Amino acid sequence: MIVEQISVFVENKEGRLLEIAELLASNNIDISALSLADTDEYGVLRMIVSDPYKAKDALLAQGIIGKVTDVLAVSISDEPGGFAASLKRITENGISIKYMYACVSHQKGKALMILSVSDLEKAEEIVSSNKDDVAPTEIYRLEGKK
Amino acid sequence: MPVRDKIETMPRQELKKLQSERLVWQVKRMYERVECFKTRMDEKGLKPEDIKGVEDLHKLPFAYKKDLRDYYPYGLFAEPLTNIKRVHASSGTTGKRIVVGYTENDLEMWANCVARMLEGIGITKDDIFQVAFGYGFFTGGFGLHAGAEKIGATVIPISSGNTALQIQTMIDFKATAICCTPSYAMYLAEEIEKAGVKDQLSLRVGVFGAEPWSESMRKEVENKLGIKAYDIYGLSEILGPGVACECEYQCGMHVWEDNFIVEIIDPETLEVLPEGSTGELVFTTITKEGFPVIRYRTRDICSLEYAPCKCGRTHLRMNKPSGRSDDMLIIRGVNVFPSQIEEVLINIGEGKITPNYLIKVDRVNNNDTFDLEVEMSEDLFADDLKTIALTEKEISEKLRSALGLGVKVHLVNPKSIARSEGKAKRVLDLRKI
Question: CA A27, CA B423: separation in Å to the nearest integer?
């Protein structure tokens, strides 16, 4: 399944990450997955949240830049070789992976991965034709709850 | 120390007479040859005949650095290109370089100005002179080179950079004199100290300029290198190095008044200020043929000393400029205008970058550091580091090519650069010179 991810520019200054976390908390935004990519100069915080657009606006109001982009959510078997098998199906089709990170899963025996890939549509096709696909409720579970 | 040319000690009364004759000549030929000057004279209702001597100088229109950009590249030359022997260029207020040209006579006059200065500080044909100013568009290298050759010194045209080679050359070639920027002299001094080779040097004198430096820096360079260090002043719009320089007494820089007339004006009211006042330095070149200027506003703030000098020269002395009346910065000897940076930023990715930036200049271990904070924007931001890194690289490279100077770019949050009265503060100069 294709899901929306929010990436946030994190200045290399003390307390910036905390500021972002607190802003999301005060706006009642739930975080399902996150990863922080960093350089010497700045970081990029990528997250799957309950409402990425609300998060983007809330952050922008405080002068923090965010961007919503599509990424792929893949469900894999939580067992040895599960990750490799999923990756194989994607890369065998000539799709390269730009970055990835893990997501909390509420389904027993399953793990969730968030992937940024070179050809999203094609990757989505491969995933949806297989048991790797993720049910929307699995990711946006919290949204449904409200 | 010897005085090279007897004109250097000419009584001021005679000097003034000579300046008047030359000014009248210059105004007349520029009126006939330089469109920009003629237009400004006409606007003021002035004719060349109205200028009878230096007492009429204040009536003449000013010239500005911006003119060099507006008439780029040759529009302000007063001689056809066939008579121009060489051009030099330096950074303008925006992307475009400013170009100046020299005739055969100009190059001769320039070499003589530098030669007077070198002889005045005791450099002779027996000296081995290491020219560590850059050669190229910059006037430093070629200017000092010609003057040193004129007095018959042995010239080492090593140009700037490559510190290890500079030091090795200094030792092997037994250099007795050197010229470069003062901050580079400090750096050289430190490297020499580190390498423990001071006792292998033959250096006895140094000529430093092209950027601001202090008395304490002078003392340090003198102690560390075991030399006498002299200050020089110049700018390519007027000539290059050799416009003014110290004599052996190090009490201000003699301006060669047979070639240049100087005034101090109030940069706000534009009125000429009385003798001894501090204000903006204005130059008129009265002998230059290729690229002459009348009342060129240097934007350098300083004062003039008219009293006779102990060295016997009658030509007035300018004190070390204490600042600028515009926002120009001198970083590692290179002129940098915030507007140049703004132009580069605006032209990247069609408005991808908001021109909100902060220039941070500092001096660490006697070397200028140059950092630029640029505000991140939604268009600039991407979810992958590679795209951001590419944009960052594009900014750095475009700035390097526009300024001729390396700058470290830092991306910061939007609106994080302090704005005062809606206008961002562009420059943070932390250097204590």
Answer: 32
Token code pair at residue B296: 């060129």
In this prediction, residue A136 carries a pLDDT of: 60
- Cβ of A64 within 8 Å of Cβ of B413? The answer is yes
How many CB atoms are closer than 10 A to CB B333?
20
Q: Which domains does chain B have, with CATH numbers?
A: 6-326 (3.40.50.12780), 330-429 (3.30.300.30)
Q: Indicate the residue of A16, A42, A46 with minimum beta-carbon distance to B383.
A: A46
Higher pLDDT, A140 or B186: B186
Q: What is the mean pLDDT of residues B211-222?
A: 85
How many interchain CB pairs under 8 A, A with B?
50
Taking residues A61-80, what's their average pLDDT?
A: 90
Strands (E), chain A: 2-11, 31-38, 42-49, 66-77, 97-103, 110-117
Contact by Cβ (8 Å): B260, B286: yes
Query: Tens of pLDDT along B347-383?
Result: 776 667 776 789 999 988 878 899 999 888 888 888 8
CB spacing of A63 vs B389 below 8 angstroms: no
Tell me whether 0.85 is exceeded by the ipTM.
no
Q: Which domains does chain A have, with CATH numbers?
A: 2-67 (3.30.2130.10), 70-145 (3.30.2130.10)
pLDDT at B367: 83
Contacts of A116 in chain B (CB under 8 A): 383-384
- For position B423, what pLDDT does the model report? 52
B90, B142 in Cβ contact below 8 A?
no
**Which chain B residues are closer than 8 Å to A55 by Cβ?**
none
Q: Which two tokens stand for residue B307?
A: 């009293």
Q: Are A28 and A54 in contact (CB under 8 A)?
A: no
Asked if the Cβ–Cβ distance from A65 to B377 is below 8 Å, we say yes
The pair of three-digit structure tokens given for residue B14, joined into one six-digit string: 């005679």
B43-63 pLDDT per residue, tens: 999 999 999 999 999 999 999
B415 interaction partners in chain A (CB closer than 8 Å): 63
Nearest residue of B to residue A68 by CA position? B383
C-alpha–C-alpha distance, residues B79 and A139, integer Å: 77
* Average confidence (pLDDT) over A35-46: 90
For residue B350, the model assigns a pLDDT of 67
**Interatomic CA distance for residues B98 and B91, integer angstroms:** 6
Q: Which of B383, B389, B392 sits opposite A69 (nearest CB)?
A: B383
